[in-house]
Amino acid sequence: MAKTPLHLAIIPDGNRRWAKKRSLFPWKGHEKAGENFHDLVEWCRKSERISVLTFWCFSTENWKRDKREIDELMRLLGKYLQKERVSLQENHIHLIRSGRSDRVPKHLLDLIDTIEEETSAAPKMTLQLALDYGGKDEIIRAVQQLKNTAKATEEDIRAHLDHPLLPDIDLIIRTSGEQRTSNFFLWQSAYAEWMFVDTLFPDFSPKDLEKSLDDFEGRKRRFGA
User: Fold this and answer.
1) Based on the number of CB atoms within 10 Å of its own CB, is 62 exposed (0-12), middle (13-18) or buried (19 or more)?
2) Which of 45, 77, 143, 202 has the fewest C-beta atoms lying within 10 Å of its C-beta?
3) Residues identified as active-site
4) Is residue 123 part of a domain?
5) What pTM, to 2 d.p., does this model score?
6) Looking at residue 170, what DSSP letter applies?
7) Contact predicate 179/16, CB 8 Å
């Protein structure tokens, strides 16, 4: 089925449970998840099956968590990006971000914006980080930019989404056994296939990802037909 490169999205659930099982602080699960994320990005960039990889780093609802965990998560994301900065450029991976810009630490937003500019030339793959992101919030922000909401078309709203030129999501993988959509890219996932896997994200390997893609390619997408 997947004859053209896919837009793959991952909801990386289970980091805190992974840490709890090992009697570690919650952010240790996020730390291990960062190492795992590196391996998944590497696999995707070498594969001809993926054109866009979207990864949910932090949701609009995650601010309800403990402040120390939030601070550590933001620190780890900044550390990861600094570490991968040169590799992203050398491997022609265009880094972009979706989500709100008013609550994330400015130094982190500035770093992401800088890397986005550095990696914009001749990309072979796009890596989209959803940071302080919620599907409802994105649609609300898009509608607020419209001059005439009464006559707004689907194309009008789409044009004001965070990245309107990106293709819609083909496959969403959620780890850890949770089976809910959780306000994730509501517009772009209208006809996405969902896959819920039991593995906690820090243990979700490239081999698991490859199996998920093989399963996806066995499905028949109808798009309402």
Assistant:
1) middle
2) 143
3) 13, 62
4) yes
5) 0.95
6) S
7) no
Residue pair 67/142 in contact (Cβ under 8 Å)? The answer is no
Query: For residue 214, what are the contacts with CB-CB under 8 A and spacing of at least 6?
Result: none
3-state secondary structure string, 71-93? Answer: HHHHHHHHHHHHHHHHHHHHCCE
What single-letter amino acid sits at 187? W
Nearest to 166 by CA among 126, 139, 208: 126
Q: What are phi and psi of 79, to 5 degrees?
A: -65, -45
Element (H, E) at 44: helix 26-46
Instruction: Indicate which CATH number applies to the domain containing 63.
Output: 3.40.1180.10
| Token digits of residue 125 | 């793959």
What domain range includes position 159? 6-217
Spatial CA neighbour of 105 closest among 48, 58, 165? 58
**198-225 residue pLDDT tens:** 999 999 999 999 999 999 999 988 777 6
Average pLDDT, whole number, for the chain? 95
